[in-house]
Write a structure and sequence with these properties.
disordered C terminus, DUF2306_membrane, mainly alpha, globular, 10 helices, transmembrane, membrane, DUF2306 domain-containing protein
């Protein structure tokens, strides 16, 4: 039976080997504090996204996506916290259900209504629509894997899902980079060329989730390589300790 000191040491080691857990939570809080206020009063005139006048359901769907996307971001942080998964599996399971059914699925469905009518043209519209479709598909795949008790596959699908959830956060960085490349005058307060500005927005839309997904796949492949290497080391040690002729 492990002692309190042993458990505390293990917890510290877990944090040190996964230093991204804390910063991810901080970035999430900062992002939500900066992004949510215009929508808290449900006033379409305060929306940071242009509202098409001929789409009366556009703002309700946008607000639904924003509020339930917030649920997905917060519970997504809990889902990728290894300490919580190991020490409080019930909390992990229930927060996972909230992530899927109270966050991703309704938020993804809402954005499918919003994305095709984005104001910055086909690149933004197709990028956000495909993001929503993939977000829904990988999340459902992760949930089904958990129900089948295929926990390795479940973890991998949910890593992809959380990576897509945080594409909206990454987009805040990519849009600045794309504006600096395509239309730097937009960053100085000058009026940019509308077509060039739309191009920058479209590129940042794609980069925000494609790069996240590529990083997630790299992370998963890195984990598989480590597992194979660890398994090979264990086998080699066992073989080395096997008596000759056994």
């Amino acid at each position: 039976m492990s002692s309190p000191l042993t458990r505390r040491t293990a917890s510290v080691r877990s944090v040190l080997t996964r230093p991204w857990v804390g910063p991810l939570a901080v970035v999430t809080v900062v992002f939500l504090v900066l992004s949510l206020p215009p929508y808290l009063g449900l006033d379409p005139s305060r929306s940071r996204v242009a509202i098409p006048e001929d789409r009366p359901l556009y703002y309700p769907m946008l607000a639904t996506h924003i509020f339930l996307g917030t649920v997905a971001l917060v519970t997504g942080c809990l889902q990728v916290w290894p300490w919580l998964r190991r020490r409080h599996p019930a909390v992990h399971r229930w927060s996972g259900r909230v992530y899927v059914f109270g966050g991703v699925l309704p938020a993804g469905a809402a954005v499918l209504f919003v994305a095709p009518f984005g104001e910055f043209g086909p690149a933004q519209q197709t990028g956000n629509t495909l993001l929503a479709v993939l977000w829904l598909l990988v999340t459902v795949a992760g949930y089904r894997a958990a129900r089948r008790r295929q926990f390795v596959a479940h973890r991998e699908w949910m890593v992809r899902s959380v990576a897509l959830s945080f594409s909206i956060v990454a987009n805040r960085l990519w849009i600045v980079a794309c504006l600096a490349v395509f239309t730097p005058e937009a960053l100085t307060g000058a009026t940019p060329d509308p077509a060039t500005f739309a191009q920058a927005v479209g590129v940042s839309t794609w980069l925000s989730w494609v790069v996240n997904l590529l990083v997630a796949e790299w992370w998963l492949q890195r984990g598989r390589f480590r597992e194979r290497a660890r398994g090979g080391t264990v086998r080699a040690r066992r073989e080395a300790g096997t008596p000759a002729g056994a």
